[in-house]
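Supplementary Methods, section 5.1.

A reviewer requested that the exact input to the structure prediction be made available. We therefore reproduce it here, unchanged from the version used in the analyses.
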Amino acid sequence: MKSASCGAGALIALATMTAASAEPSQRRWDGVYVGVSGGGGAGAFDTKLLDDIGLLPPGSVVAQDLSGMVGGVHAGFNATRGPWLLGIETGFGWTSIGGSGSRISTVDPDWTVHTKGETNWIASAVARLGFTSGNTLIYAKGGIAMTDMTLHGYSTMLGTYAGGGKIDRRFTGWTIGAGSEMAFTGRWSIRLDYDYFDFGKERPNIGGTDIALTTQHHVGRVGISYALGGLR
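The structure derived from this sequence is encoded token-by-token as follows.
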């Protein structure tokens, strides 16, 4: 009887330990973290003619709708006070976001003006304000952003290439966004993240024509992060 009681007690203790080990460790959100993410983006890229090119009057706009994929890395630091979190984060993403636009000449409908924009990469540095509840974090963010874009501008007559040019340009602007993050085991967490980027206006010259460029992006990503801090 005594041995049976001891055996039952051992089984209960083993079951208790197994259940405890199956529970996810509570995340300590303070400290440094690194991660990777991927997703997609969409936006607009407008080219405004500042010179008279003979095909369209000054002030004409050739609009482009952008779309594509994004993949990159991020790193940051968090500090908490009670349930509130304050942090900083930097990110860099390579993209295939791009698009094209065209306008038929107002002077001769046989001619068309074309533009094609490509977003090569996007970088950002933001502050994050969040609310934590156990292994869950909800946050808003905002800061500065930079992108590198390539613009092709050219004209065609009856579909035949008639000349143009290409430039690479870096834009600096601002970003705001929000997201949520959940720790699922130890130091690992998964996130859903949204960013809006406004890169302001640039005034380059392409093919001898002065133009004004404006661009905005919407980017949504799924990411995974690794906390370099410890567990509670």
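Confidence is low (pLDDT under 50) at residues 1-23. These observations are discussed further in the main text.
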